[in-house]
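Fold this complex.
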Amino acid sequence: MHNTRELLPGIHWVGGNDRRLNRFENLFPLENGVAYNAYVILDMKTALIDTVDNAISDQFMENVKHVLNGRALDYLVINHMEPDHCGNIVAMIKEYPNLILVGNTKTFQFFDQFYGLDISGRTLLVKDQDRLNLGSHTLKFTTAAMVHWPEVMVTYEETQKILFSADAFGTFGAHSGGLFADETDYLNDYLSETRRYYANIIGKFGPQVQVLMKKLSQDEVKLIAPLHGPLYRGDDLGFIVNKYEQWSTYRPEVNSVLIVYATMYNNTTQAAELLASKLAQQGIKGIKLMDVNATDVSYLIAEVWKYRHIVIATPTYNTDIAVKMHTFLHDLVALNAQNRSVSLITNFSWAGKPAEIVKGYLDQLKNITLIGETVALKSTVKAENDSALSDLASAIVSHLNQP
Ligand code: FEO
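Structure:
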């Protein structure tokens, strides 16, 4: 059975959900599946904006056919050639023999790499700011290299002022009835997954997101229609654009402390908890402790994008540091995290240089400020460590009290 929705006159959502997928890109844990959005525009000419993952092909084909209601599909705009969106292009080519694929040079290069199908005579090659008129609707294409792949572009519909934003503004999680953010309990159910999606999928490419935001600032937008998750309209437009401004310029959202810790026998945890308590007693609200061994790294990364100050607390392991702490620190570097203050708590019983190892990663990050002295435990928290933790808490509070 089809499951579609007319978003605005002539603009139809034809996507779907995969509630059985446990890991996005076979990597990122999903708590509530994922949504693949795709859109059909009905006008003198018909256009489909992107397709969906193979996992929901049947639902998608039924949706497209229902909305077209016997009409042919004239254009397929390919904003993104990653398989979670291009998985049904070949099926559409076969279903609609006169279909023209709209993309840029890299789009068709990637199409050939993935599918190796001869599409000569069936393509419309577009460049940045090119337009395609469908009748009363006109599509304007804006290249958005590296948001998230090099071929990405976004499509702006000029009449109804809709931004089909590709991966930008996407969110993990299936739709639960409502498609628009204002139809959901967005702050409770989606925002943290919008942030986790941003930080892990696009976070590395903040400067490229900034370039795109500048290019788009000339156009009034009344609806943001991404490829994953909720759509944004009304007051939510300003909210999500502000979040993207913050995230893409690596500015923290909260003036508080994230403590990422590893522990074997809870001694490092005790130091982390003592520090958190001292910080809370000095007025810091919303402190968060996260165990690297118990938490997928994508959640840690998302919180780094949120918090201003990060405390890294780790014991040694095999004269090195905890393996999953390596993973976390590696991802900070890989995803271009920057512009944060950091403090260290270390612990070892017989050998190791954990502070040096952690600092080796931090040295690769831009604009990192170390706050306070490293609190170096030997096996357990002693009175002198408690005193050092008090000093560290005061140094962190003093830092957070500055603009
Ligand atoms: Fe949702 Fe970059 O693909």
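The domain at 254-396 is CATH 3.40.50.360 (Rossmann fold).
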